[in-house]
Amino acid sequence: MLKQIELNPEKFPNHIAFIIDGNGRWANKRGLPRSYGHKAGIKACKVVIEECLKLGIKYVSLYGFSTENWNRPKDEIETLFNLFRQFIKTDLKKVLKEDVKFIVSGDYTAFPSDLVEVIEDCLEKTKNNKKMVLNLCINYGGRPEIVRAINNIIKDGIKEVDEKTVASYLYTASIPDPDFIVRTSGENRISNFMLWQCSYAEFYFPKTLWPDFNKRELYKSLDNFSKRNRRFGAIKENK
């Protein structure tokens, strides 16, 4: 029998970000096409979003499509686009009705026009929601984000900047930096994700492939975070 995990809501992260990894390997282990792994990954996204909403976590980011993912086979990219359409139009309906605000980090305008319309419709309809913010990171990369911010700062004629200025030009300007970044599948890297925002984040690298990242795995990650001693460069005296 699995040990019950007792969570401490007082020690939950304010913003948890997920680097989704392992969909393809999940499918390969089962002798299935990679597209089946991505479909199973969408189901895991739904579980994570709904559970975070129940737990009262205010901000959730999902890294769903990186700027480097354009290098994948065309048919796999098309599968991902179709899944994004379904995810936003159908799968997210339930949670978005629960006062969830939908935002996007990344240049989604590079996607097919009908997908852009679906995204923008969802952005508009949820812009005033307040219970939780769901940040979908698509066509996103940390370095391109910083370059984009710098170019926009230059265009606006700003001659001198501080950290607050730079942060205000990032995709994530309207939300706090993540406290906790979870990358599934056992890979110990961040793959160009939130390079500016992750400076004081706690990291967690479970070996679980993303389609298997269920409620229990989420609880394990939150339990792990609750045991961290976050000092932010200071020294805390033992009592």
Strands of the widest sheet, in order across it, are: 3-4-2-1-5-6
By CATH, the architecture is named: 3-Layer(aba) Sandwich
Give the fraction of residues assigned to helices: 40-55%
What series of H and E elements makes up the topology?
A: EHHEHHEHEHHEEH
The total tally of domains equals 1
Class by alpha and beta content: alpha/beta
List the helices and strands and how they pair.
Layout: E1 15-19, H1 23-29, H2 34-55, E2 59-66, H3 74-91, H4 93-96, E3 100-105, H5 113-125, E4 132-140, H6 142-155, H7 163-168, E5 180-183, E6 202-204, H8 215-226
Explain this structure to me?
- By secondary structure, this protein is an alpha/beta fold.
- The protein has a single domain, classed as Undecaprenyl pyrophosphate synthetase.
- 40% of the residues lie in helices and 15% in strands.
- The protein is built from eight helices and six strands.
- It has helices spanning 23-29, 34-55, 74-91, 93-96, 113-125, 142-155, 163-168, 215-226, and strands spanning 15-19, 59-66, 100-105, 132-140, 180-183, 202-204.
- It has a six-stranded parallel beta sheet with strand order 3-4-2-1-5-6, with helices on both faces.
- 33% of the residues are buried.
- The model has no long low-confidence stretch (mean pLDDT 93).
Protein traits:
alpha/beta; 40% helix; 239 residues; Undecaprenyl pyrophosphate synthetase; six-stranded parallel β-sheet; globular
